[in-house]
Amino acid sequence: MKSWCKNLLAAGLSLAMLSACSSSDVEEEPVSELTAIQATVFPEVSWSASVGDGVGDYYSRLTPAVRYGKIFAADRYGEVVAFDEATGEQVWKKDFSEEFRDNALAKNKGARLAAGITAARNKLFIGGESGLLAALNAEDGQVLWHVIAGGELLSKPTVADDVVVVSTSSGSLEAYNVDTGAKLWVYDMQLPNLTLRGTGSAAYEAGGFFIGTADGKVAVVVKNNGQAAWEQAIYNPTGGSEFTRMADVDMTPLILGDNLYAVSYNGNLASMELRSGRVVWSRKYSSFNELATAGLSLFLVDDHSRIYSVDRRNGLELWSNSELVNRTLTSPEVYKDYLVVGDFEGYLHFIDRSTGSIVGRIQVDSAGLFSQPLVVDDKIYVQGRSGNLAVVTLP
């Protein structure tokens, strides 16, 4: 399998070459320069700490987790740290590269963590490009079990009751017992010849794992036996080349009531019935980012960092914002009355979610922000490429 587009940064190629991933022959728009805004909110960093050496220029979906009174974060090279949520003091630290140097990582160049962190069942679940999936005790960081999955792990594990599942770059969804690491089942998905680098995490609801596939589909896999209940395309790839036929659903399906929402690269944003997979509506958008939601709106950052608000009832566009085009925006997240996104220069932007206007910004890490902001209890947790972990609040 060949993997393109989102791993070009890791290969050290320039932004100009990133345009080769576009499905259009139209000349690319330049990177938007930041201009003065009429600020109405003034975010500030209320706490920050350094977590190892960060992720550098590598593709990564490492995100912090906040649970059990702690803030958990990791760097690419194997450092996993827990901070006390109230005081910000370090509680424990684990070095994966050292822990697994003589066994699971003996033939690998360090931990290369890229998938995680998921906090559940008093454990942390985290994985990496080597296929290593490990479960740690959330209280003290002790490694409880580890396995080697059948491919790279590039997205967060998903925990449902006594099962943890991971999506691998080789096109499989693998399930393990959360307490022992025993493999329960494997669901194999078809991989096209050319895909984006990256996989989406599964969503869990009503006994099924909902997962996007690399060929433009959403599938639901039954937790108890690993069999598909249904599989439905949200976009049928077309075009004369493998580039134009790329249609990865490289995000976690968003479940709201009786419907789920998913978006594909080069394809569509679609609403589907949860029970049957029937497509209720679809609209032409291209994205590999997570969706966010508030009220009746869906919020989407497309593959060129344009931001949209869409009515989730019918797919009608409510507003769009092109002021941050090609700034490599993170997936969006809702914070109070705002939408927050990070960019490649480390700015966190606050956008009025009713109008789409940028109303505030703050630079958190000059090396860049790369992962979706995490909102917990009126605080925004963001992780920068240099390893800076910060809490941003509005005074």
TrEMBL record:
Membrane topology: Lipid-anchor
Domain Pyrrolo-quinoline quinone repeat: 78-321
Cellular localization per UniProt: Cell outer membrane
Gene3D superfamilies: YVTN repeat-like/Quinoprotein amine dehydrogenase (2.130.10.10)
Signal peptide location: 1-22
Keywords: Cell outer membrane, Lipoprotein, Membrane, Palmitate, Signal
Pfam hit, one: PQQ_2
SUPFAM superfamilies given in the database record: Quinoprotein alcohol dehydrogenase-like
InterPro entries for this protein: BamB, PQQ_b-propeller_rpt, PQQ_rpt_dom, Quinoprotein_ADH-like_sf, WD40/YVTN_repeat-like_dom_sf
NCBIfam families attached to this UniProt entry: assembly_YfgL, PRK11138.1
Function as written in the Swiss-Prot or TrEMBL entry: Part of the outer membrane protein assembly complex, which is involved in assembly and insertion of beta-barrel proteins into the outer membrane.
Quaternary data: Part of the Bam complex.
Family note: Belongs to the BamB family.
Descriptive protein name: Outer membrane protein assembly factor BamB
Gene: bamB
